[in-house]
Write a structure and sequence with these properties.
Layout (H helix, E strand, L loop, with lengths): L3 E8 L8 E2 L7 E10 L4 H12 L4 E11 L5 E6 L3 H16 L3 E2 L12 E3 L11 E4 L1 E6 L9 E8 L4
Antiparallel strand pairs: 1-3, 1-9, 2-10, 3-6, 4-5, 4-8, 5-7, 9-10
Helix pairs in contact: 1-2
Length: 162
């Protein structure tokens, strides 16, 4: 059975459900759950993620220092100062996804090795000490209609306790 690919992010630019973009023009975002594979993001799974979000309160993240990620340290990122809220959000989402059978591309960068970050884009970025309010998460389809050259905003789920 074919699998879909997804990522869960905190979007820092204005997009709406259904918007598509190329991997080269990714909007500014903070990665919450790195890329994973799943047969599909169905209504049951979306419902579980929505219930989690319904019980969350908005929190603030602060941008930290610039670093370089990736196997060759070629990806320029701004790290976020980690706090209990972002760790809990990451861990709980990963747990829900793992229970649904998700296969994570880089499990070595999850749980205690997870470090929230925003990739520095060509025209926009976060700078040290910038604050971001996390009050929602966005699910991105990394293979919409089987097309690896597009990304699609599948759903944004808001925390109810904003």
């Amino acid at each position: 059975m074919a699998t879909q690919r997804y990522v869960i992010i905190k979007l820092l630019e204005q997009l709406k459900e259904g918007d598509e973009f190329s991997p080269e023009n990714y909007p500014l975002h903070i990665t919450i759950v790195p890329s994973f594979q799943l047969e599909r993001m169905d209504d049951v799974l979306l419902g579980k993620i929505k219930r989690l979000c319904d019980n969350l309160k908005a929190f603030t993240l602060t941008a930290g220092q610039d670093e370089y990620f990736g196997p060759n340290r070629e990806v320029h990122v701004t790290t976020m100062v980690m706090n209990d809220e972002i760790r809990r959000l990451h861990n709980r989402l990963v747990g829900i996804l793992a229970d649904a059978g998700a296969i994570f591309d880089e499990p070595e960068y999850m749980f205690e090795n997870y470090h929230a970050h925003a990739t520095v884009q060509r025209s926009t970025r976060l700078y040290s000490n910038d604050s971001v309010t996390v009050e929602d998460v966005t699910i991105i389809d990394k293979l919409p209609n089987g097309n690896p050259d597009k990304r699609k905003l599948l759903k944004t789920l808001y925390f109810s306790k904003r």
